[in-house]
Batch of 4 targets.
Target 1
Amino acid sequence: MDLSFPSLTLGQGLHWNALLLFGALLLFGLIGGYIATKTHWVPRITGYLVVGFILGEGCLNLLTGDVLEVLNIFADIAVALVVYQLGRYVDIGWLRREKWLMATVLVSSILCFIFVSMALTAIGVSHIVAMMAGVFSIATAPAVVLVVLRDLRAEGQVTRRLAVMTALNNVVALLAVYTLLPVVVSEKGTSVWTLIWHALYAIGGSFLLAYLTYLLMMPLARLLGRQRARQFVLVMAVMSLAIGAAHALNLPVLLTMLAFAILSKNLDSQFDLMELEFGAANELFIVMLFVLVGASIRLSDLSTVGIAVLALIGARFLAMACGVFLFARVARMKWSQAGLIALGTLPMTEAGVGLMQALGRLYPHTTEAMLPLLAGCLIVLELAGPIAAQFALLKSGESGRE
């Protein structure tokens, strides 16, 4: 009998290292999140970000190659889970009664575009980069807002408005990006009709894929019945299929999943689909997402765009605050509530870099010029934004956490 051991090839060694680091990320991420929660005002995701920064490009540079590919898959699923849960806060019937909230979202978006574009142009940033930054700054970070409000078990007027505004801000930002790019951007070697077709394909294809995903899921939800375990597996399976289809068709995952969540919430007249708590599965993906975001942070990015980053953040916060305060009285909100909602919108979307990378094929020059500014904003807002959002919800008095 041959008792020889199999040889340890280079490929097997790399595979083992990827698994080792993957498990270590979960452990270090959980420890970092636990330490962060020991400070009353600091949310656990800040701990995940710090761990990612230590392990990433900015420090130890361990998150590369196979590990980064695995993390990117988890990050896509995490974003899908987050926007699905956040999108289901968007109740069209409730929005009809709270019509001033939709006005707030639209006015805030317009002001954000104008204020940020003007502020960046005034300090010498190129006209195209300034306009694109104005569009990207409309979106509020969905993962940050959802994790903070779930951690705090927050319920109430400020919480509901902040959640719905976050979901709608992302829809407006994504639609604006794909609508504006063909108009303002000129890329060598790419015709304007190609750019327009790409924009129409991205928007129309995302909504069509979202609707087809909804048509696939609802009969299965009806067949399986209102049992949480079965519906949990169903939602995870359908979302995985949708993410895979979006990647295969080069469609924006964030827009597809937001549209799918809103459709599943508002077209399900018989309430066949249950409101699910993703619990431990959610935690796994959230750890991976924010460790990955933290790993992309390089403090050196701030050295060249520091003033532009401060201008963008200041103009963005002013625009969001103006939009919220403008409709506060007619929306029957107190000034303090309006201020807390404006503060809660401070986190900037962590999906921005991924979207820029997806657009890089058609708009290489624009994305190359835009990425340093966007990365600099994420460094500041991904660290300060969660703290601001948690502070806002705690001061609102709507937190269920003692």
Target 2
Amino acid sequence: MRALFERSGLRRLWAMIVKELWAVLRDPKSRIVLFVPPLMQLFIFTFATTLDVKNVDVGLLDRSSGAHSTELVQRISGSPNFRQVVRLRSFDELQEAIDNQRVIAAIVIDQDFDRDLARHQPTTIGVVLDGRRSNAAQIVAGYLTRIAGQMGADTLPRAAADGQGGSEVINWYNPALDYIWFTLPSLVAIITSVAGLAITSQSVARERELGTFDQLMVSPLRIHEILIGKMVPPFIIGMINGSVYLVVAPLIFGVPFTGSLLLFFLSLATYLLALIGLGMLVSAASQTQQQAFLGVFLVTTPLILLSGYAAPIDNMPGWLQVVTFLDPARYFLVIVQGLFLKAMPAGAVFHQLWPLVLIAIATLSASAWLFRARME
């Protein structure tokens, strides 16, 4: 058995894997850097990357000063999304408050507001938004519209009963609209991407910088054995970090995992192989670790921005949507969100997984070709 082990080359491969693992894990500080910062990033970014708008100030120009306008102001003040309602006395003060970013929005209540409501007639309020913060301003406008609509339904119940307003909203997969339920599964893909690319990209560049790359060239190791040995450590570390995220999400953040564990780890393994192929391409093309670091930055930024995490892919231009089909994070993001929140069935997972397999094959093949060309 031992002779077969040696004859088949498994002993050389095992020695290469142990050597690479030892190079990555021998320094205690390196071990901490590989596992602690990704976990810290998960905790910090889960709360930081949110589109919820809270603790903002809104202005108020009340030209009615009646009971109904006072009730509307009290409802706005009582909302947990707003910190303070700033009283304004004129349109000049309103303009100054918006220009100086004292408020993100200003509410204008017309002088006929209370009179119209007393006559059971529909009325409107004006909202001036700070267009420099367009996303946050639109969300604040939604908050104000919802508050005003609820007050209108309470004040004019007959109109609501006649079918002039009102709706029933059911939120599937995230009933409370908790943004963490969307953010955390996405961060599993994003942080895994950054860590996987960073570790892999340093492998060959580190050999060149330390002067040991020539030793690999004259060693009895074959090219595929060197490549596999360099790919195994980041693969193992990525699987460990992914497993930790899978445990942390439901236990600490309360984000349910409703899908299949087998499909999750299968998808994670395929995604890591695609990332490792990209990282090896960067590493094989770099002469120093500094070049590898800059190369990873060049790859990571479009990988994240084109994945659909920062902005929906449907909102991108048509030609850019075509480019996103080459982004492995695009597919893994859909898989991990589906497995966490809606128990994505195997058929839907494999529909996203087969492009990921093709990307992994392409990147691994390209990195092997470039590595062989550099060794020759």
Target 3
Amino acid sequence: MAKKIKDKKRDSIDFGKSRIDPLFNSIFYPTLLSMVFASFFTVADGIFVGQGVGSNALAAINIVSPLFLITTGTALMFGVGVSVVASIHLAQGNNKAANINITQAFHVATLLMVIIAVTVYFFRIPFLRLMGSSDALLPLCQDYLLTILPGCICIIIQMIGTFVIRLDGSPKFAASLEIFPGLLNIFLDWLFVFPMQMGIAGSGIASSISCAAAAVMVIWYLFFLARTVRIFRLKLSITSLYLTARNVGYMVRSGFSSMLGELAMSTMLLTGNYIFIRELGEDGVAAFSVACYLYPIVFMVNNAVAQSAQPIISFNYGAGNRYRVRRAFRVSLSTATICGVLATTFLTLFAKPLVGLFLQAGTNAYEVAIAGLPLFAYSAIFFAMNVAIIGYYQSTEQNMRATLCMLFRGLIFLVPAFITMPMFISPQGMWLAVPVTECMTLGVILLTDKGIISR
């Protein structure tokens, strides 16, 4: 009886038969809410540090931020990969294979992140220099880096858990994995930075505690609330290790373009930090950091669109239902386009109050950010469409297409744009590098896959 009552309270989702539009909405709105809170998770750090510690501390967080993107990229690679693979197995009725894949994703991704965190800890000075830290910012960068490393390991569990729990038919619980930790992070940021005066280290500690809380929620769900998904004890035999390596390789291929998406943001941060500090000094990096704090909101909103469509598309792709695949993609693309237009409009119209959240009015960094943010905002429209299309490629196992698209927007177009555009128009060229990159990527997609929009 207790089991029946619990099941009635659970979300009821049928990826193969429910009408696409309400099915997408039932996943999208909780996912969107969770993604917005995930964005606030990052933005809260910037607001409290910028106002409570200063612009140099804000610039220091921006220097360290690529580590966060490497972490979330690793988590997304395994999360998307296992979601695609497990969705296809579930559509074919092979629940055991799906659960083995899920277990392998958690184990391997967590181990990989532990190795990365330990390596960064022991080589933190070279790492921070590589990220573009100046001598003035190095002490602040170290304070922040050392306090967020434990949280990076917990982020892996949190993000993979979000994909797995959503696949298990519980998008509301998946959303809570971002909402509760996001609220906790905001409170702890305020507590540690202002009343307790712990500076930039306090912000890092707040982030790590919040990520740990989310990881505990994932573990609790998997062991006590899960309906279909299960965690298996993996064997350590040669055969088992071989199968794990094979399955992980398949997951990595399916989710690799998602990691490239995060690495694209990391490249944007790294290249932008170098260019802005070269042209405008520490104030330039502080101004650029405002855009980098707001950009994840745009990323998360459109990632919510792609992630909501992904289990629907992957499940029906595995079941061979092409009509439902096409319909889900159309809903995803139209929703993403609307979100992109709204994001560009919002960032353009409210540039001053948004910049004022992070930087003191009247400072040089503030003025630089006010002038540049409206230009940077044009990237949102093209970015939204790119993410929806790449998400479709991932969900239908077109991994090479997805990877190439991410390489175009994350490396092939982005780095040359950052380097060359300031030569022709400065400082506007630095702010327009990302919009131009996203526009060129969309152009390549439309030229090489002419039927993508009409699907």
Target 4
Amino acid sequence: MRSSNPVFSRRGFSRDNGYAGFNAQQQAGGPAAGTNPYATNPYATNPYAQQGTVLGDPGQAPARSGAMTIDDVVSRTAITLGTVVATAALAWFLLPVDPANLTKSYGIGIGAALIAFVFAMIQSFKSKPSPAIILAYAAFEGVFLGVISSTVTTYVGAGVVPQAVLGTMAVFAGVLIAYKMRWIRVNRRFAGFVTAAAIGFVLLMAVNMLFAVFGGGDGLGFRSGPLGIVFGIIGIILGACFLALDFKQVEDGLTYGAPREESWLAAFGLTMTLVWIYLEFLRLIQIFMGED
């Protein structure tokens, strides 16, 4: 199983039809498309391998010892998100924003974000999930979020962060309901389109940042004013699409009897996607409140 997110891509998602499947590309001597990708595991013979399941349906999840369960995914995600929240709170209270020296505050936040990025890249290229690396990513990502949230609150108002959190929770709940009701059909074409759109979005934002660094202001204006609102909404929509992909990966893991350790990858992907959505909401609310 892999978890999809707007920035990093791990193991292959290549199901073209139906509601179940991992990367099913045939290899010499390997399993054919549609077979269980965990067939080499002693507990991987899943009776539901050719059937779709609904995320979180205990009647469809594999019951074998050592296989991932929905409880594993929920508990690992809670631990990872809890780490983000805890370190964000610590950064908020221990690293107060100094209006007279914003460079210091931004420097700490950007430094933490870069370290989190390094840990995320390491995990993305590892063949197996590493809880230590994932939690290290979550800790530094939390520091970054704490600094950014504190800065925005200082200059915009105390209601920005709660609104961004509520917005993120609403998107999560909405996508989960839509996914369980099968209003969203996640297939290979959907995954490819969303991934391509997200890569284009990230590259465009990177170009805008470069123009801002060397030209001052907001660069090309993609993160402020009317254009900022448009791209903020696009960013949230992309995050919602990647949540659907994350839910699909969790469902496939349950369907095919993924090893229990794979629940850490699910937690990793979900955390990254939720952080993405939160930051987009934070920026969008900031623009609406007139602070570019």
